[in-house]
Request: fold
Amino acid sequence: MKTKQIIYQVDAFTDKPFRGNPAGVCILNDEPSAGWMQNIAMEMNLSETAFVFPGKKDEKIIRFFTPEAEVPLCGHATLSASHILYETGMIGGNEEITFSSRSGNLMIRKESDWITMNFPADTLKKTGDLSDFIKATGLHPAELYETGKFWSLALMKDENEVRRASPDFMKMKNSKYNDLIITAASEDKSYDYCIRCFAPGVGINEDPVTGSAQCALAPFWNQKTGKNDFVCHQVSKREGILKVALKGDRVDISGQAVTMFRAELLV
Reply:
């Protein structure tokens, strides 16, 4: 008899339903084809769906798909997959998880009702030419950076500019700025900085809460403030809270998650 394949939907970086960033999670016994995973992600129609299956020794392989493409790293889908592994008892609460991803190994641990993900830190290179960026996005940042991975990072004047930003997604999609983080110091003293993230290049106009962006944001705000530990407020419509700590060339990203539903896949 064929083993049932279950898919979950989880709201990540929140402790409340209908907040944070929803992700699909599919825990599998064997590696499926990339085409099958892409079709499931398209069917879920969420910003990302994570697929987890056995790897070498104690590692688990994790892959991430948007409705349009595979991406090398996704924080909220990693958090969601970890949450399901812990919640269902597939992994004990005192055990660490090692995911093998296309961005290297991701180490996960559980601390009370928070899950901490250890990701590689990103690099930053400041760029002085803003003209192409302004044409592509309509935004006027104070500073602009290219990261070593796929993000561009724009420092805005204040939180109000971050909240009011309304970029031209069609122009962005056809430019090199199609994966964009915008950030500013937070006006709410409960948080250190605020962000919004846009990724029309992979079919996500705005990502509600973005764990992978912290790989660049932690070293960025470390350079600005000298601090290593931060609380980030993503000020999208659904909002989300992340605890972030720079650990040398790695970044700890912590969040909570809520399971919304589980369903049996029939294909």
